[in-house]
Design brief:
alpha/beta; 10-stranded mixed β-sheet; two-stranded antiparallel ribbon; globular; binds nicotinamide-adenine-dinucleotide
Length: about 325
C-alpha cells in the first residue's frame, strides 16, 4: 500500500528541489501518495494564511510530511510559517545532518555531524517587547519539561542510529538559569544512557572546536537559536548549504525539510542543488521503514558526487538542478 505523505513545495527554490526529490523517490519504486498542501509566501498571498488549517490537518492525518523551504514573513507582519508549523504540530526536536561526500571540495573530509535543536522554546518563542522608543527586550524561555524531552529524543535517536557520543552546546556560564536548566536536564537524561559518551561545550568554544576538529564530534544537542546557527556552520564544513538535510519530530508527527532556505538569488533559474532535499526525502523514507530505498538514494548521491562529472554551481560545477537529479536517478538504476 502506498505511503500517504503531505507535500509542501514551499517558496523560492523549493519549487525546483521538491519536484526533484519526488522524482528520485518515484525512481526507488516506493509507492508514495503525495497530498500537496499550501504554506508559505504563496499561501499567504493567495489564501490570506501562511499556514492554512487544512495543511496542519493533512500533516496530522498523514503523520509524515516533506517540505521545501518557506520565506520568513516576519518583516511583512506575518508570523514565521516555520515557527507556526513547529508550534502547531508540537515538533519539539529539529534534526539537521551534514556529511562530507568524496568529490565535494572542502578542507574537511569524513565529517558526519548531526545537530539536534530544541525547536519550540528559547527566544524563538517570539516574545519581544519595546521598552520605550529606543530599547526592546526578547524573552528566552527554558522549561525542564521541554529540555528533558529534547534530551531524551536525542539520546534515543543517537542509539537508534548507532551514534556514540552526544555533546551539549550551551552558554550556561552566563545564562545560568535558562541554559543552566537546559544543561542540567541534558545531564540528568544522559545518566539514563550510560552506553553513550556524553560531554558539553560552551557555544563559542563549540564553534571553534567544530572548525578546528569536527571529527571529534558526532551528535550535538543544543537550544533553538544556537542550533539554527550551528546547522549552517556544519553545512559550511561539508562544502554547501545545499547538502544539509533533516527533519522535525514531535510525538505523533514528523516533517522533513532540508537545512537551506529559499535562496532568492537562485530561485527560478534551475541551478540550485537538489541534494539537500533529496537526502531529506531519503531520511523520510527511512522513517517510513523503507530502509533499502533510503540507503539506495544515499549511495546514488555518493556515486554522483564522487564521479564529479555532474556538479551544481555551489559545488564548483555547471550542472542544472534537472541534470543533477537525472544523474542521481541514473546512479540509482545502476547495479
Ligand atoms: P538560504 O539558505 O536561502 O541561502 C543562503 C545562501 O546559500 C545563498 O547564497 C543561496 O543561494 C545558497 N543556497 C541555499 N540553498 C542552496 C541550494 N540548494 N543550492 C545552491 N545554493 C544554495 O538562506 P537565506 O538567504 O538567509 O534565507 C532566504 C529565505 O529562506 C529567508 O526568508 C529565510 O527566512 C528562509 N529560510 C527558510 C528555511 C526553512 O524553511 N526551513 C531555512 C532557512 C532560511
Amino acid at each position: 500500500m502506498a505511503h500517504r505523505v503531505t507535500l509542501i513545495t514551499g517558496d523560492g527554490i523549493g519549487r525546483e528541489v521538491v519536484p526533484a526529490a519526488q522524482k528520485v523517490v518515484e525512481a526507488t519504486g516506493v509507492a508514495v501518495q503525495w497530498e500537496e498542501m499550501p504554506a508559505g509566501e504563496m499561501a499567504a498571498e493567495k489564501l490570506g494564511e501562511a499556514v492554512p488549517e487544512e495543511t496542519i490537518a493533512s500533516i496530522i492525518r498523514n503523520k509524515v510530511a516533506l517540505k521545501g523551504p518557506l520565506t520568513n514573513l516576519v518583516a511583512r507582519g506575518w508570523a514565521s510559517p516555520n515557527v507556526t508549523l513547529r508550534s502547531k504540530l508540537g515538533l519539539f526536536a529539529q534534526v539537521r545532518r551534514v556529511r562530507h561526500f568524496d568529490g565535494v571540495p572542502s578542507p574537511y573530509r569524513g565529517v558526519d555531524l548531526i545537530v539536534v535543536r530544541e525547536a519550540v522554546e528559547d527566544t524563538y518563542a517570539g516574545v519581544e517587547q519595546k521598552v520605550g522608543p529606543d530599547a526592546a527586550v526578547a524573552i528566552k524561555f527554558a522549561t525542564r519539561a521541554a529540555s528533558e524531552q529534547v534530551a531524551r529524543f536525542t539520546m534515543e535517536y543517537a542509539r537508534r542510529l548507532g551514534r556514540r557520543k552526544v555533546t551539549v552546546a550551551h552558554k550556561a556560564n552566563i545564562l545560568k538559569l535558562t541554559d543552566g536548566l537546559f544543561l542540567e536536564s541534558a545531564r540528568k537524561v544522559a545518566a539514563e544512557f550510560p552506553d553513550l559518551e556524553f560531554n558539553d561545550r560552551m557555544i563559542d568554544n563549540m564553534c571553534f572546536q567544530l572548525v578546528r576538529a569536527p571529527l571529534d564530534y558526532d551528535l550535538i544537542l543544543t537550544t533553538n537559536v544556537y542550533g539554527d546557527i550551528l546547522a549552517d556552520l556544519t553545512a559550511g564544513l561539508v562544502g554547501s548549504l545545499g547538502l544539509g538535510f533533516g527533519g522535525n519530530f514531535g510525538h505523533a508527527v514528523a516533517l522533513f525539510e532540508p537545512v537551506h532556505g529559499t535562496a532568492p538569488n537562485k530561485a527560478g533559474r534551475g541551478i540550485s542543488n537538489p541534494i539537500g532535499e533529496i537526502l531529506t526525502a531519503s531520511m523520510m523514507l527511512a522513517h517510513l521503514g523503507e530502509t533499502a530505498a533510503a540507503m539506495a538514494i544515499e549511495r546514488a548521491v555518493e556515486r554522483v558526487l564522487k564521479e564529479g562529472k555532474v556538479l551544481t554551481a555551489d559545488l564548483g560545477g555547471r550542472a542544472t538542478t534537472a541534470e543533477m537529479t537525472g544523474a542521481i536517478i541514473a546512479a540509482l538504476n545502476q547495479p
